[in-house]
Amino acid sequence: MSDSQIDYDVNQIFSSDELKASAVLIPYINTNLLGRTLKIQPPISINLNDTMIIDATTLRSLEITTSMRDNTKKGSLLHAIRRTKTASGARTLDRWLCFPTTSINIINNRLNLVEYFCKNTHLTSDIRQILENCDDTQRTSQKISFTHYNPDDFLKLNRILESMLIIKNRLQSELYATPNDSMKTLVERIQPQNDLINIISEAIYEDMLNKMKETRQYNSDGSIISSVDTDNKDTDIEDVENIDFDTNLEEKCNDEPVMKRKISKKHKKMEQDSESSIFEEDFASIVKNDNWVIKKDFSPSLLKLHEQLETKYHGSVELRSHPSYGFIVAIKKVRNNKDVERILNATHIHHFKYRKWFIIQKWTHLGGQIENIKTKIREEETKLLQLIQKKIVEEWYLTVQNSRVVDELDIASSFAVLAREQNFMRPILNYSYSHKIVGGRHPVVEAGLHRKDVSLPNMGGKSTYLRQNAIISILAQIGSFVPADYAEIGIVDQILSRIIMDEIGRGTAILDGIAISFATLYQLHYINRCRTLFATHFHVLPNLMVNFENASCYCTDLQENEDGSFYYLHRIKEGVNRNSAQEFRRQCY
User: Fold this and answer.
1) Which of 377, 404, 437 is the last residue before a domain boundary?
2) What residue ranges in 376-517 does DSSP mark as E strands?
3) pLDDT per residue as tens digits for the range 431-470
4) 483 close to 446: Cβ distance less than 8 angstroms
5) Cut 0.85: pTM above it
6) Is the dihedral of CA 527, 531, 536, 541 positive or negative?
7) For residue 228, what is the enclosing H or E element?
8) 35 is in which domain, residue-wise?
9) Can you spell out the DSSP letters for 520-568?
10) Strand 435-438 and strand 494-495: pairing?
11) Are 458 and 338 in a shared domain?
């Protein structure tokens, strides 16, 4: 079902193809998620005019999310700038990089958040520390909504919801001292879920869950192992069954050992270990400390069952469940087996150094009653967990909305950390065709690259320069500060890898290369009319472009000394350097 009422005419918002896609999607969900009641968000129409279009080839060429060398995240732009604390924040950052926005309002709001965190370092540190407890909100709530959960997932979600509330309060207190409209708007989107927090806190027995995790009392699928006491702490079952138990009880008396004299040393050691470790707790403590995941006073029916259970034990003897004998009674310091057998109508089956085992029919019946009550408690706990899960599903959409705010805060604070680490600056965005970058750097290869507007000819760096300008535009339009001393950027609506080309015409005859290059420039200038960075060594091209009103030439330069030596200036200047080849050749010879 839809999570909220759709209050608009879908025929006006969505195209016929979009409606057809939705009509196909709903039956698919119902088929693959049988028996589950899902909260589905209303459909959202995404306008491509609000998004920078980057095709798959360009994403690969610019190494936005994966590197070209080994197709892993290491070496990519995402790897270089990611400082997020949560998994959902990292996924959101990945999505932003693939789909940068073209809305200046959205960009400036994000930049305002980054600037706010940059100026308030203590706030940034506090928020990022709290974010560590947020884990993966959306997937945790999704797991619970799909009924693939265990009680620990409820506690995990509860910690996340509590962290969201702490974040909201921390930011509100900071806003009183240093107001910021963008931060205020974002914080107001966090809706506290106090009722859900209280329900989970009052219901789940957190200490017991922690104890169960320490003792690994979870199945491989995350479910709780049944708490019916099968005495697994006993000795190894295989060893117990190999013991030669005495069957002629009438011939034994007092403290004579029940096991035959031929018992092995291994079995003797097993007796000592069992005596010291198996029965350290009496039956009362075993019942009280059973693996209950719901607090016994959470509901009247559950409390009543626990009261019934407590009436079934007494601290003077120990009742245990054994895999071979069922319920047995362990009694300490028995002097005469026959007295016990006669008075209690018991059957002596085995003894250790300080303790003897008996089967007593009444106690066996009592054990069955206890297990029956335990089963009822488990059933009641299951019902209560289902009620809590239903409440979580009811608030799922609100949880997702809050998690999106947390993701934005995670990314904004991570951008602030990145800006301080790498000395990034806030870009200026507008709707012009300007692209003015001063002191730009490539964020991935910055460690091995000088700050530059461009590098020298045939010495590497021009391709990096072309790519870094595209990357700087992407960073600016996801709301990040950029690796430059100054950046004024007109909004880019599309980046194509065919425009990011290096030395068009290379590998052909000179005249053919010039012809291809000029034809490409002509097409870009008069037909496509997109912003272009064009690197070439063909000095004749500027002569052919005299009438290109929107084109200008820039070149590298060098500083020549009095003795004839020279060095390159890692900057560009307006004009054409027609002697670069001669100077470079003179240096080589």
Assistant:
1) 377
2) 428-430, 435-438, 486-490, 494-495
3) 988 888 888 888 887 644 445 454 444 444 567 777 888 9
4) yes
5) no
6) positive
7) none
8) 1-45
9) HHHIIIIII----------TTHHHHTTT-TT---EEEEEEE-TTS-EEE
10) unpaired
11) no
